[in-house]
Design a protein that fits this description.
This protein has 500 residues and is α/β, with parallel strands linked by helices. The chain is 33% helix and 21% strand.
Length: 500
Amino acid sequence: MTGKVWLVGAGPSDVGLFTRKGEQVLKEAEVVVYDALVGQGVMGMIPDGAKCINVGKRSSNHTMKQEEINRVLVEEAKAGKRVVRLKGGDPFLFGRGGEELELLIKENIPYEVVPGVTSALSVPAYNGIPVTHRDYCSSLHIITGHKKQGEEYDIDFEALVRTKGTLVFLMGVAALGDICRGLLEADIDPEMPAAILQKGTTAAQRRIVATVSTLEAEVNARGIETPAIIVVGRVCELAEEFEWYEKLPLGGKKILVTRPKELISSMSAKLRAQGAEVLELPAIRIEKRECEGKIRHALENIENYDWLVFTSPSGVRIFFEDMRECHMDIRKTGSLKIAVLGAGTARELESHGCYADLIPEKYYAEDLGEALTDVCTGAEKILIFRAAIGSPELTSQLLNVPEVEITDLAAYDTVYETSGMVDLKAEFEEGITDYAVFTSASTVKGFAKTAGDLDFSKVKAVCIGKKTKDAADKLGMETYMAQNPSMDSVVDKVCELCRR
């Protein structure tokens, strides 16, 4: 059976600019053929088990020739796979998407195209440059700055200058001098504002604003990294006045988040709202245990318990999944009181239409045990629904209750994750990532498992609590602890550190 190919534009890099349709298609992919310009955030959406094929495609550095890429798409589709061709920006804006479609059509391969946000518009916007403005210009022109080595530009610079519009050159960093000279020879005003914009929409975003006659010298003096785009036009004057990205509390900062995949989005959203570029690297995975044996027996007799205890959002989620598996009516829990550890666990419980009767002020297992001990009078039956590696301090506290009966269920396992998609050594030893966020000792240990020969002293770790900090300290990380063991407090600590 023949599969299908989707040409998907991944946008400029900021994962928030990836389209909803692109995300939906990517999450269902069996094979992903991706470019070097696809942002790490989008790469993190690739489903586990999908075959990933890196085809490179940076200027003058192609891992795979275009003809070979075309052939790979056909071969994988003919094998019956759902193939996503993931491209930075938009597939049809200098993305050679048309060439890939030609072969798919010839081979009768079904396909769809999912447009993406182009860097020609988004990167200037993130730098405070509106590519059009009624007081400055009435047209926009997007030009490829790439040319084959040894060949002259096939660009009518005189026609471009006559438009009096904004000019955006993509893939033109290596030819910056040729582009500026071509415009000057076409009689553009030497004082026309011009800018080069580096790694737009990421924490490494940077711009140099000069004029057409001075931009090359400024870049040579101050340096620039690729990818970058060139913008020529009076609108470049507005960059300093209109800049906004750098003014966000975490603008220009890159933060690594290590929570389990199903929980990572809430922390990432909080950090992105403050302007951070977030690199998601789940360090642990939650594996639900089969709803059999002790688990099924406890759920089928749930009405016999006095207290139901959750220590994490994952425990709440899996509890309700198991209830459904057992075809259990939630009304059987009506007489139970519920105790939870932490605001995040309480929110997950509320999402299922239930509210906690007990939440300790502090968010540690021993604090939950103490709080439960204080409200119990004796002979209570307590069901704890949590991870197999749950802290023994919870149950040791509860044993102080006279004639208490404790059922401590290992409902899920915490498994360390590994990832070959991120070079952690480069991220921290080269100063690309500013801070790593850890929300449990398990995430620290999982991170260490996948970090290879990383020098841990180069990692600035923001930890949710003392046990997490202890685990990071043992590895030699530079550690900081949130004032309170909550997600909001972790974000506040990151903002405080970045303000310094």
